[in-house]
Design brief:
Number of strands: 2
Helix content: 40-55%
Strand content: 5-15%
Number of helices: 4
Number of domains: 1
Largest sheet: 2 strands, antiparallel
Shape: flat
Order of helices and strands: HHHEEH
Structural class: mainly alpha
Length: 125
């Protein structure tokens, strides 16, 4: 369950850690996300971009469960702000607004035209 990071390696896990600023490998501020967790998400997600979104969602949940406010030698930290940050980041990663370092944008398209739905049943008279 060690946390490792090496930007020189350029693996998907390293690029996700760098994008999410989860690069501390020792001390009291080590990322709460284990390497094995990121590797499992990469293996199961449709792409690295979506895996990064899942990691951000995990971090949002992680920080939301912490104390609302902590005082550390006169410095106050509001963990709920971190939770909101990572939740917003998860949405931006999933939608492609923010890209994982080294990933190319995924642009979806349909080979068949999309027809407008018939909404006549939903209109008020």
């Amino acid at each position: 369950m060690a946390v490792t990071f090496d930007i020189a390696l350029g693996t998907s896990r390293d690029r996700i850690r760098f994008t999410l600023a989860q690069t501390v490998t020792s001390g009291s501020r080590v990322s709460p996300v284990a390497d094995e967790t990121i590797d499992a998400l990469i293996a199961s997600a449709a792409n690295v971009q979506l895996a990064a979104s899942y990691v951000a969602q995990f971090l949002a949940s992680y920080w939301a469960q912490r104390a609302m406010e902590v005082d550390d030698d006169g410095v106050r930290a509001k963990y709920i702000d971190r939770a909101k940050y990572f939740q917003e980041l998860a949405v931006k990663l999933a939608s492609g607004v923010i890209l994982v370092i080294g990933e190319t944008p995924i642009i979806g398209f349909s080979e068949t035209p999309i027809e407008k739905p018939d909404l006549s049943d939903y209109r008020s008279t």
